[in-house]
C-alpha cells in the first residue's frame, strides 16, 4: 500500500511558507489506517524491552494509543501546557513554526516515542529530553511521515528516528 496516496498537501497552513501534510484521508480509510498501525507494530516489536509508547499531542495520540493497544503496552500522553493535572514535568519546545511547552507525568519504563510528522526535529528531541528528565528510558522514536528535506539525520534514544513515509523534497 502506498501511504503517500492518503496524504494531502495544504500549502501555507498553519502559517505562510509551511506545506502541511494532512493525514485525515489516511484516518478516514480503515484499511489504510490499520495498515499503518500494523507497520508501526512490526517496527515496535523489533525493539527489545519496550514497555510504553509515548504519543505527542495531538496526532501522535492517534497512532500511539492504537499502537500501545495492539502491542499490550502502556501509553504516555505528551501534552501541551495546561492539559495534565499537576504534578507534571515540562520543557520548552521549538518547532518549525513556533514554540510550545510540553508536559508529561513522571514515571518509569522503557519508551518508544510516536508522532505523526518529523519536520525540524525540535518537538521529538524536546520530548526525548522531557521523558528522560521525568524518569523514563527512551529507546527510540517512530514517525509516520518524515520531511527529510528539513533536517539532517535525527537520533532519539541513540537510534535514528524510523519513518513509514519519507519526503526528500
CATH class designation: Alpha Beta
Which strand order does the major sheet show? 5-6-4-3-7-8-11
Uncertain runs: none
- Which structural class is indicated by helix and strand composition? alpha/beta
Shape: globular
From the 3D structure, determine the CATH topology. Answer: Rossmann fold
What is the tally of beta strands? 11
Q: Give the N-to-C terminal Cα separation.
A: 21 Å
Using the CA coordinates, give the radius of gyration: 15 Å
Query: What is the annotated CATH architecture?
Result: 3-Layer(aba) Sandwich
Count of separate structural domains = 1
What share of the residues does DSSP label as strand, in percent?
A: 35-45%
Q: Element order, helices and strands? A: EEHHEHEEEEHEEEE
What is the mean pLDDT?
95
Number of helices: 4
Note the main sheet. 7 strands, mixed
Quaternary state of this entry equals single chain
Percent helix, as a range, is 25-40%
Amino acid at each position: 500500500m502506498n501511504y503517500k496516496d492518503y496524504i494531502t498537501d495544504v500549502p501555507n497552513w498553519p502559517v505562510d511558507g509551511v506545506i502541511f501534510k494532512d493525514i485525515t484521508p489516511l484516518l478516514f480509510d480503515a484499511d489504510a489506517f490499520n495498515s499503518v498501525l500494523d507497520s508501526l507494530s512490526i517496527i515496535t516489536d523489533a525493539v527489545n524491552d519496550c514497555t510504553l509508547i509515548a504519543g505527542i499531542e495531538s496526532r501522535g495520540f492517534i497512532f500511539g494509543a492504537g499502537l500501545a493497544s495492539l502491542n499490550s503496552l502502556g501509553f504516555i500522553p505528551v501534552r501541551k501546557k495546561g492539559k495534565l493535572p499537576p504534578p507534571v514535568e515540562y520543557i520548552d519546545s521549538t518547532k518549525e513554526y513556533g514554540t510550545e511547552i510540553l508536559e508529561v507525568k513522571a514515571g518509569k519504563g522503557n519508551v518508544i516515542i510516536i508522532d505523526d510528522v518529523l519536520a525540524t526535529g525540535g518537538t521529538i528531541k524536546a520530548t526525548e529530553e522531557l521523558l528522560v528528565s521525568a524518569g523514563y528510558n527512551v529507546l527510540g522514536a517512530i514517525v509516520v511521515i518524515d520531511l527529510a528535506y528539513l533536517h539532517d539525520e535525527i537520533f532519539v534514544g541513540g537510534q535514528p528516528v524510523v519513518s513509514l513515509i519519507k519526503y526528500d523534497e
